[in-house]
Write a structure and sequence with these properties.
With 427 residues, this protein is of the alpha/beta class. It is built from 10 helices and 16 strands. The chain folds into 2 domains: 285 residues, Aminopeptidase; 125 residues, Alpha-Beta Plaits (2-Layer Sandwich). α4 packs across α10 and α6 packs across α7. The structure holds zinc ion. The site of zinc ion has 6 residues, from α4.
Length: 427
């Protein structure tokens, strides 16, 4: 059954979304005041309990799941996630909404208290307002708007607050998927209310390949360098080949996935760090460098795939080694994140599109993210392809000083998510 978005029920949902906005603002502020900073992962338990208390008070069951067995789950910095579930009027599909409640450190340059949750100029200010505590509030209050509008749905709504997204999400969403709590067996759709602008739906991200290259030389006296072999010179040759041969090639490749900003539609490679020889500014001895090390960040496209990406790097290194006498190197993988993309015409995308055009009276933009986020775990570990990111907040403000979220955005996203949820659960 195709639920229309122009009927009286939708009016009721939109009015209910408007009526909860003050409470949604207050809840966001409460969450902002808990400085769940990652690293190292502070006050996670308080963050989880704050969300859990809300869920329990609004007809959800609440469940706390610690990342048992994960090395980052320590007595000092426990990794605690929370999930709430509310059953609909009849059996059906499950919509899972997930937000990470960890935030990056405040950093410098603030004119507001980063954890003061000030409200002014129609905005809530503070670290984690847009990325993504307001998003968590949007999910919670969308569910609450449905309850107050007396809207019956089938299936169930689940809402989770998870940790560590900013450091990869392994003790957060990845853990919930790995232990089977959130997988294709029990979850049909997922919405992650990350800040991607309130009229845009994000359908995935590029892949990431971090790798280490170490070059091996031979130590000798610095006054007779010809008796040794410089690992730094060799690393220089590799860096030069990357700059003049590989990077121009990568710049020609464009993905069909609608990544924003547009320049991120290309394949890229960044050198994260280079070190070699004797470390530091302390006393130095005259030595030829016998070791150099660099870490690279290659962002690859869905169309490239990981195997071809790695093979291309191996080939480049081999060609440099073939023309630089004595060059010896090791290549090792540091991290691989595969690209992910929501299937075209996914019901979760379509229901959000319809809801955005109803609430904002404009056409939704379909985009993909330049960096990765927890969608990778829903997709690759949970095998839940019908996952997107949609939430309040301006993408460019994430991780910036004076981060804020617009209250109007928050209100609109509550209405959009509530309408989309109704459509998904009554389909
Ligand atoms: Zn985020």
């Amino acid at each position: 059954m195709e639920a229309s978005l122009e009927g009286p029920q939708d009016e009721r949902i939109i009015r209910a979304a408007e009526s909860v906005i003050d409470e949604a603002v207050e809840f966001t502020r409460e969450l902002i005041r808990i400085p769940t900073v990652n690293p190292p992962g502070e006050f996670y338990e308080d963050g989880a309990r704050c969300i859990g208390r809300w869920l329990k008070g609004k007809g959800f069951t609440e469940e706390y799941i610690a990342a048992e067995g994960m090395p980052e789950h320590t007595a000092k910095h426990p990794r605690i996630n929370v999930i709430g579930r509310r059953e609909g009027a009849r059996p059906g599909k499950t919509l899972h909404m997930n937000g990470h409640f960890d935030v990056v450190p405040a950093g410098r340059g603030w004119t507001k208290d980063p954890f003061g949750a000030e409200v002014s100029d129609g905005k809530i200010w503070g670290r984690g307002t847009c990325d993504m505590k307001a998003g968590i509030a949007a999910a919670l209050f969308a569910a609450e708007a449905l309850r107050r509008a007396d809207v019956e749905t089938g299936g169930a709504i689940e809402i989770s607050g998870t940790v560590d997204e900013e450091s990869g999400g392994y003790a957060g969403v990845a853990h919930l998927c790995k232990i089977g709590r959130v997988t294709a067996q029990n979850t049909h759709f997922a919405i992650i209310p990350e800040p991607l602008n309130v009229d845009r739906i994000c359908v995935g991200h590029r892949g990431v390949y971090w790798f280490d290259v170490v070059t091996h030389g031979r130590i000798a006296h610095g006054s007779m360098p010809y008796l040794g072999h410089s690992a730094i010179d060799d690393m220089g040759a590799i860096l030069e080949a990357i700059r003049t041969e590989l990077q121009p090639e990568l710049a020609k490749r464009m993905t069909k996935v609608p990544v924003v900003p547009e320049l991120s539609r290309r394949a890229t490679l960044n050198v994260n760090t280079v070190s070699g020889g004797q470390v530091g500014e302390d006393v130095q001895s005259p030595c030829v460098a016998d070791r150099a090390h660099a870490i690279f960040d290659r962002r690859f496209l869905l169309e490239e795939g990981f195997d071809a990406t790695k093979a291309e790097i191996q080939k480049l290194l081999e060609s440099v080694a073939a023309r630089v006498p004595g060059l010896r190197y090791d290549l090792s993988d540091r991290m691989v994140v595969h690209p992910t993309a929501t299937p075209e015409n996914s019901p979760v995308t379509q229901s959000l599109q319809a809801a955005i055009s109803r609430v904002l009276r404009k056409e939704a933009q379909i985009i993909a993210s330049p960096g990765t986020y927890d969608q990778k775990h829903f997709d690759r570990i949970g095998h839940i392809p019908h996952t997107v990111a949609y939430g309040p907040g301006v993408l460019d403000l994430a991780h910036q000083p004076d981060e804020w979220v617009g209250i109007e955005d928050l209100k609109n996203s509550i209405a959009v998510i509530a309408l989309a949820a109704t459509k998904l659960l009554n389909a």
